[in-house]
Write a structure and sequence with these properties.
254 residues, 12-stranded antiparallel beta barrel, 6% helix, 12 strands
Length: 254
Amino acid sequence: MKPYWLLLAALVWLASPLRAQVDIESLRRDDQAGFSGSVAVDLTLRAGNVELFEFGPELSFNYGRAEDAFIFIGSGDAGWEGKERFSNEALAHLRYVRSLGSRLYGEAFGQTNYDQSRRLELRGVVGSGIRWALIAPGESSFWLGSSFMFEHERNEVAAADDHAARTSIVRWSNYLSANIKLGETAQLAGTAYVQPAVRQFDDYRVLWDSVLRVSITEALSSTTSVTFRRDSDPLNGVDESDFRLSTGLALDWD
C-alpha cells in the first residue's frame, strides 16, 4: 500500500493548489466496499519553436462501507514552458454518500478550484442532494441526481468589465449519467450536468463529459475523454463555451 500513498502525495504536490468542473460520476466507486481509487494522467510535449511539457494529473480515492462512502477527487493541469513552471487549473472535491434505500442515496459535498483560462481566481462550493439509480448498478448503470449548492467565486476582472469580481449564488445542479460496459475490455462513462441559478434560470452552466476506457492490463487502462462546457454569463473576453479532447492512461487499485 505504501507505493500508492507515495504516488498520491506526489500528484497532489504537483497539482497543488488543487479544473473548474469535474465529472464525478466517471470516477466514483461508492458501490464498492473498502478502499479503491484511480490515478490518471494525460501528457502534451512540444519541441522546436515552442518548448512545452504539460500534464494533467487526476486522482480519485474512495472509501466505502455498508451504508455510506467517502469520495475525494483532485485534478490539475501543470507544466513547464521553457524552464518556467505554470499551473492553469486545479480542483479538489470531497463528497459523502449515504444509502437511503435500495436505489436512493443522499449526498453532501464541498469543492474548491481555480481556472486561469477563464480568469477564475477561486471558486468554493458546498451542497447536498439526492442520487437515484434508474437502473440498478451492475455491468452497466444509469443514474439521476439533483442537489442545491451554494457557490462563491472570486474573478480577475478588467476595469471596463461589468461582471462582479466576487459573486455568491445558489444553484440547482442536476445530472444524468451512464456507465456502459462495451465488451470485455472497454467501458464508456458519460454525464450531462445542468446548473441554473435558483433565482435567475437564464444564468446557467452546462457540462457534458464522456470517458472511454480500454483495458491494457487488469489495473492499467488507456483513456479518451471529451468535455464540453457552457457558461451563460462569462467574464468579458471569455468564451461562453469550451471543448476539450484528451487521451491518457489510468491506473486503478482496490
